[in-house]
Amino acid sequence: MKSCVFAGPTLYQRETYGLSVLPPARLGSAFWAWRNGYHRIAIVDGYFGSIPSIWHKELLYVISQGVQVWGAGSIGALRAAELWKYGMGGVGKIWRLYKKGVITDDDEVCVTHAPQYMDYQPLTEALVNVRLSVRALRRYGMITVQQESILIETFKNLHFSERSNRNLRLCFSRVLGSNTHLKVWKVYSRISRDQKGMDADSLVRGLANESLPSMPKQDWVFPETLHWRRQFVERLGDLPDGDKDPFF
After folding, report:
1. pTM of the model
2. For 238, what's the count of Cα atoms within 13 Å in the CB-facing half-sphere?
3. pLDDT given for residue 47 in this prediction
4. Is the pLDDT of residue 180 over 80?
5. DSSP secondary structure string, the chain?
6. pLDDT by residue (tens digit) across 212-245?
7. Which own/partner pairs from 166-172 qualify as long-range (CB within 8 Å, at least 24 positions apart)?
């Protein structure tokens, strides 16, 4: 059974276990994968903003066609949390946090990244990674609950494109003071975790090893609305190829 994963910065410098790795997902990616014979699809990263993001309804459609779809790490975790009741599988801590409503905003997983020829190297820090790492600092007794809250709020108030490692350190200095923050930052740098990458690795490894649980057969019928037909049936030629990066 053919398998593929749509990924970019979250899998930077990580093992892909021989899977077919395609550019970050966007509108039409899952539909394209289904039409090209992929019956197991993993979604990690995806485009948004200037490029239409992957549509919930196309994911529902391929699921209704018997395709097994999972998500983790980034937009994949978000979509899986939104669609798990309809048969999309989720993997990892970030998916569970979204599913439980502990985190809700899209910007928790947003980063800027380098282009394809630089392997989508991430250029900013994911808020959810920082959130979990700062939580670990507090559990180590390095900061108080109040300082944890202020640090996260200060970093969250930055646009995701400004959440660089340098600006994160400035947040530490502003909240903790110029003397204290050096010691805390040193510990943070040692214990910080890439939860997005860890979750994505679990998904990709499970897909490659065929150890992910099969989702139960769905008892709902896909509604082929007029909008769906116009977007994905009557205008198939408008859909981009899922194996090509839109910026190249």
Report:
1. 0.93
2. 9
3. 94
4. yes
5. --EEEE-SGGGTT---TT-EEESPB-TTHHHHHHHTT--EEEE--B--TTSPPPPHHHHHHHHHTT-EEEE-TTHHHHHHHHHGGGT-EE-SHHHHHHHHTS---GGGS---B--GGGTT-B-S--HHHHHHHHHHHHHTTSS-HHHHHHHHHHHHTS-GGG--HHHHHHHHHHHH-TTHHHHHHHHHHHH---HHHHHHHHHHHHHHHT-SPPPPPP-------HHHHHHHTTTGGGSPPTTS-TT-
6. 987 777 788 998 888 888 877 777 667 778 888 8
7. 168/125, 168/130
Write out pLDDT tens, residues 36-91. 999 999 999 999 888 889 989 999 999 999 999 999 999 999 999 999 999 999 99
Q: Is 78 in a helix, a strand, or coil?
A: helix
